[in-house]
Write a structure and sequence with these properties.
heterodimer, A: mainly beta, three-stranded antiparallel sheet, 4% helix, B: 151 residues, alpha+beta, Immunoglobulin-like
């Protein structure tokens, strides 16, 4: 597991790029004998409000890459990335906006 | 996915909703069935309760014409609509076509990029639910030379 992030603010718009380490396995490999393991909810919060809310499935590629932007941010602010997968595993990380 | 896993998914979602209080009830917690649908239209019906859509240029979908690697196809979705509620990506050629749903909130710029898996050549649909609950759809065909659903 692990979340890599680049988050930059220009004027009041923050652009966030995330790379989340996760297999995103559909369980369909080799005739469906594998176990499904994929992120099914990922949110990013900025000061208590949700700025990104995604419900992926195993149709999102391995080690998901995510890019989005939101308004009302300034340099030095913190965003919190949180995800959970279908097996109940989750991860949370704070990222400082540059 | 087996029935057992499907039920587990439902409970997990309820737990998430209870813990997280993301605000408005999510499409995922209300319609977990949609993610298990085996046709694009069934997913649309499960998620939004209708298959009646408006085909216009309000939903914007950026995808390559030809994907050499179906395991990682770059996609950018966006909308010019103000106050759109949700965006959903449907990949018709996949075993479970509903690929991603985004819930939009105030301050979020409705333009997202990610990478998706495509099993075979087929249509990708972007559904944007506007503030009145109407669905705007854009469709694009992508040719896949090597399928990417193993994994």
């Amino acid at each position: 597991m692990g979340i890599k992030a680049i988050a930059k603010v220009k004027h009041d718009i923050a652009t966030v790029k995330l790379l989340v380490k996760h297999p995103m396995a559909s369980g369909k490999i080799g005739g469906g004998k594998g176990e499904a393991k994929y992120i099914n909810h990922l949110t990013v919060k900025h000061g208590g409000r949700v700025v990104y809310d995604m419900y992926p499935t195993s149709a999102v590629s391995k080690n998901p890459y995510i890019k989005f932007a939101f308004k009302g941010a300034k340099k030095g602010d913190t965003i919190t990335v949180w995800w959970q997968d279908n097996t109940g595993k989750s991860e949370k990380k704070d990222i400082k906006l540059k | 996915m087996k029935r057992r896993n499907f039920l587990g998914l439902g409970f997990a979602t309820m737990a998430v909703t209870a813990l997280q209080t993301v605000g408005s009830a999510s499409i995922f917690s209300e319609h977990p069935k949609a993610f298990m649908a085996t046709s694009g239209d069934a997913a649309l019906k499960d998620a939004y309760g209708t298959t009646s859509v408006i085909k216009d240029d309000k939903a914007k979908l950026k995808l390559p014409d030809i994907a050499e690697n179906g395991g990682a196809v770059p996609v950018t979705v966006s909308t010019s609509l103000d106050n759109a509620k949700t965006m959903t990506l449907i990949i018709d050629g996949n075993p479970h076509p509903l690929a991603v749903t985004w819930e939009l909130s105030e301050g979020t710029i409705p333009k997202f990029s990610t990478r998706i898996k495509m099993r075979k050549t087929g249509n990708v649909r972007l559904v944007v639910e506007d503030a009145n609950g109407k669905l705007h759809v854009t469709t694009k065909q992508v040719k896949v030379t090597v399928g990417g659903c193993g994994g």
